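Example record used in the benchmark description.
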Amino acid sequence: MTGVDVLLASSMAGTIGQIGFIAGVDTAAEVDDVNAALAADATYLGTSVEAGDLLVTGSTDPVIAMQMDEATAEHISRLDASTEPANG
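Model output (structure tokens):
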């Protein structure tokens, strides 16, 4: 996903070891473009095959997309900058 900032997140509760990826884009068309590029990338597709049992079929959650206004994005940015890691 060249040119798109991606955040890796892990759960603090619930499924142990669950991770998620969050990417911000401006339009739904950009999401479609990224998905098309990943689907056409043999190296990316091969990585999921190499992962083997690390990827459990049917274990993914649906993608939730929302549009965030500038004020909300700024608020989240300030929270992120002021948050210390949970383990100190």
